[in-house]
Design goal:
The complex is a heterodimer of chains A (376) and B (393).
Chain A: H1 7-23, H2 26-34, H3 41-49, H4 68-81, H5 87-101, H6 104-116, E1 121-124, E2 140-144, E3 147-158, E4 165-171, E5 182-188, E6 194-200, E7 206-217, E8 222-223, H7 229-265, E9 267-268, E10 271-272, H8 277-303, H9 309-337, H10 348-361, H11 366-375
Parallel strand pairs in A: 1-4
Antiparallel strand pairs in A: 2-3, 3-7, 4-5, 5-8, 6-7, 9-10
Helix pairs in contact in A: 1-4, 4-7, 5-6, 5-7, 7-8, 7-9, 7-10, 8-9, 9-10, 9-11
Chain B: H1 7-23, H2 26-33, H3 40-53, H4 71-83, H5 91-104, H6 107-118, E1 124-127, E2 143-147, E3 150-157, E4 168-174, E5 185-191, E6 197-202, E7 211-222, E8 226-227, H7 233-245, H8 250-266, E9 268-269, E10 272-273, H9 278-301, H10 309-333, H11 362-368, H12 379-389
Parallel strand pairs in B: 1-4
Antiparallel strand pairs in B: 2-3, 3-7, 4-5, 5-8, 6-7, 9-10
Helix pairs in contact in B: 1-4, 4-8, 5-6, 5-7, 8-9, 8-10, 9-10, 10-11, 10-12
Classes of the chains: A alpha+beta (376), B alpha+beta (393).
Chain lengths: 376, 393
């Protein structure tokens, strides 16, 4: 039982904190969000230089071989900065899929590029009817000659526009809600038959609606086993949830700290707001939510490599529920306690609130994961 | 960073488990498991067993009979006790007054009082709250006036848990009206057999007799029973409250939720087990998620030496969850929460409960557990503490 960071992890934390302080002032971020790409290639290159993109990738393929706790440290600080670079989709998810299911050829070709910042990945899984069920897949992949023909629609594909390749879940057999018969494919973003409609998200990221109309891919585009996509998605999405919990913890801590500061400086009725007991108790409740969220974030990141699948999945869902509840409370109360200022686009509070709200929907909201937890 | 118990921790846990298996009589275990009322003999029996093994006062200094356990061992020990359905340790002597005596008392007091606490031959109760002094404890009015070698005590203490069994009471008394209210309080040990003490029961909403009023009329207390310095009692009281709040609740919560799940598997709703009902299943899952969070939170605090702010938020969150679980348990048993048959909670009651056995304690416990958010510094007071100590408000 040890909840302290190693010396390397502490150095990593310091280094990301410096990056956030230097590159992520609210005004700088605002410009990034409004730019063509929605993020900074310069930042991405810097992340590559600092070894962050290779952090979780295996040493055999040019990576650093870090574990979930290393990613957690990084993601928490990214959360504090509301970092918009596509780290989660490209490295945690894209890299995660390559590591968990990639062939030796795919790993050899792609992982070193990914870690060097020369390749970006995205993950297309959601469909109009699927809601949060990863295995509700109508997107079709039909065998044709040595390869496949892909057709269908994928919604809200994060960072699709900036990705070089997109990992797509497609049905190779069975009915639309069968767990079996789902296969993952690696598809070039610029291939014939693929069209995108790109748009910004409410929390300052980018996403796309993806349409494929008879996209032809070879057998070497299959990621993992044919029909084995569901298990692969469980594993990698579990890791992504563990990572996004850390991002949420970073967001919540900023809100809790700044709201506390604000109450001490804002004077009404001749006294700082922090002197009102009703607000003191509200702050304590926010503080307790932050501590609970952090505890579950540690828990899930320490259990994500657990052998026992049910225990691992329960940890994932329990953490996501807690993060959803805590994020909602801390976000809503931060706006409330800032009064009218909390409503403004000018203040950073609303931006954190929006990110926390969207984190709840990522990979299943708290209602979804509570039900999933109950069913496990 | 890791969340694994070390090999030696697990060896220790197994040792505790084995000890409980070997020493806790089946009948007593069943009483605890079924949520029946325990008597003084039940508590004392188990405390003496623990003491024979040297485990009754693990947090005491080793030279006085303690064990040099780390916080993980304390955690495991407490949780094994609950998992094993052991009677809880009554805290007033061993966990509350004893640390005050060995920290602030003189040698004579240590020799006089600690051995009797260790072998459970003397039962202590806590004289803090008064009718006019609850959350605002420092406003207490029970007076102790020096008269030669004695203090003469007059006043009323209330909510005194299990005073009906007590041989001694440790009291906060007012020895001075000067300065701030906190500055005139002393910490006094009083023999319950002293002339002028009267104990009357307070029956709580669950129908049980746990708490009492204790009246003091011209009670003469030898001055040698004063702990530390006169008018410094508030310091000792605050020290003690930290111990009161730092009890691990994880084990008890796990047991509560396990019982609840067991009930939800047996109760029927619409021809199916209640736990399959989507509405109830969601509430149950929500409780279980909160328990996991609480456990993770408590495990994070294990490495920290002194119970500080963590004790306050663990108290709030733990008691909130106890209340929620007891509420869900009452809902789970539906109509069989209604029958009020207090005897059914007494061991040896020969008639079956009118409904399923598990339903008998549901309503009493729900009503009784409302106390958890009130005692040991209400959860509102804990928030006051946290807003100052942690948030600097």
């Amino acid at each position: 039982m040890d909840f302290s960071l190693s010396e390397e992890q502490q150095m990593l934390k310091d280094s990301v904190q410096r990056f956030v302080r230097d590159e992520y002032q609210l005004e700088t971020r605002r410009k990034l969000v409004a730019s063509d790409t929605g993020y900074s290639e310069k930042n991405w290159a810097k992340m590559a230089d600092l070894g962050w993109l290779a952090l979780s990738l295996p040493e055999d393929f040019g990576g650093i071989g870090g574990g979930p706790v290393d990613t957690m440290v990084l993601m928490e600080e990214f959360g504090r900065g509301l970092v918009v670079e596509p780290y989660m989709t490209s490295i945690v998810i894209g890299g995660g899929f390559l590591m968990a299911g990639g062939s030796t050829a795919q790993k050899t070709e792609l992982l070193p590029k990914l870690g060097a910042g020369e390749l970006k990945l995205a993950f297309a899984y959601a469909e109009r009817q699927s809601r949060f069920d990863l295995t509700d897949v109508e997107f079709k992949a039909e065998a044709s000659g040595d390869g496949y023909i892909l057709s269908g629609h994928k919604g809200v594909v994060f960072h699709a526009a900036s990705a070089d390749k997109i990992i797509v879940s497609a049905r190779t057999s069975g009915g639309s809600r069968d767990r079996s018969g789902i296969t993952l494919f690696l598809v070039d973003n610029n291939c014939a038959g693929l069209s995108r409609r790109d748009y910004p998200t409410v929390d300052g990221l980018r996403a796309s609606e993806l349409e494929m109309d008879g996209v032809t891919v070879g057998a070497d585009a299959v990621l993992g086993q044919v029909g084995g996509g569901a298990a692969l998605m469980d594993e990698v999405v579990g890791q992504a949830i563990a990572a996004i919990c850390a991002e949420a913890v970073g967001c919540m801590d900023v809100l809790q700290e700044t709201t506390n500061e604000y109450l001490k400086t804002r004077v009404q009725f001749g006294v700082p707001l922090s002197k009102f007991q009703v607000l003191q108790h509200r702050m304590v409740d926010m503080f307790m939510e932050c501590e609970q969220a952090r505890s579950m974030c540690y828990m899930v990141n320490l259990k994500i490599a657990e052998e026992d699948k049910v225990e691992r999945e329960k940890a994932v869902s329990a953490a996501k529920v807690q993060i959803g509840n805590s994020g909602r409370y801390v976000g809503q109360q931060s706006v409330q306690l800032h009064g009218g200022m909390g409503m403004t686009d000018e203040l950073h509070v609303g931006h954190y609130f929006k990110r926390l709200t969207m984190i709840d929907t990522m990979f299943g909201n708290k209602d979804h994961h509570l039900k999933r937890y109950a069913d496990l | 960073m890791d969340m694994q118990f070390r090999e030696e921790d697990l060896v220790f846990r197994d040792e505790v488990r084995q000890f409980i298996n070997d020493n806790l009589p089946v009948e007593l275990r069943e009483k605890v498991q079924r949520g029946l009322h325990l008597g003084k003999d039940d508590f004392v029996f188990w405390q003496k067993k623990l003491n024979e093994r040297g485990w009754f006062a693990p947090h005491w200094p080793v030279e006085l009979g303690g064990v040099a356990w780390n916080s993980t061992q304390h955690y495991l020990f407490q949780n094994e006790q609950v998992e094993g359905n052991c009677p809880s340790v009554i805290p007033f002597g061993v966990r509350m007054v004893a640390p005050v005596i060995f920290t602030f008392g003189n040698d004579e007091q240590k020799q006089r009082f600690l051995p009797d606490i260790l072998d459970s031959s003397v039962w202590w109760c806590q004289g803090y709250s008064e009718p006019g002094s609850g959350s605002d404890l420092a406003s207490l009015q029970t007076k102790a006036v020096r008269d030669g070698d004695h203090y003469v005590v007059n006043g009323t203490k209330t909510w005194t848990t299990l005073a009906q069994y007590a041989d001694w009471i440790f009291c906060l008394v007012r020895t001075s009206g000067e300065g701030k209210p906190q500055e005139g309080i002393s910490f006094l040990l009083i023999d319950m057999k002293s002339p002028g003490i009267e104990v009357t029961p307070i029956i709580t909403i669950d129908g049980s007799h746990e708490v009492n009023s204790v009246f003091f009329t011209d009670v003469r207390v030898p001055a040698e029973n004063l702990i530390g310095e006169e008018n410094k009692g508030w310091t000792y009281a605050k020290f003690l409250l930290l111990f009161e709040r730092s009890n691990s609740l994880t084990g008890g919560l796990k047991q509560q939720l396990r019982r609840l799940r067991g009930i939800a598997e047996q109760e029927l709703a619409g021809g199916e087990a209640l736990c399959k009902d989507p509405g109830f299943a969601a509430k149950l899952a929500d409780c279980e998620v909160q328990l996991r969070t609480y456990d993770a939170l408590e495990l994070r605090t294990l490495g920290k030496a002194e119970p500080g702010a963590e004790a306050s938020y663990l108290k709030i969150l733990g008691t909130d969850l106890q209340q929620l679980a007891s509420e869900l348990t009452l809902r789970a048993v539906a109509y069989y929460g209604n029958p009020f048959i207090p005897d059914a909670l007494v061991h040896g009651y020969n008639e079956p409960f009118v409904g399923p056995d598990y339903a008998a304690p549901a309503a009493p416990q729900y009503f009784n557990y409302r106390k958890t958010a009130i005692y040991a510094g209400s959860n509102e007071i804990q928030r006051n503490i946290l807003s100052k100590a942690v948030l600097g408000m």
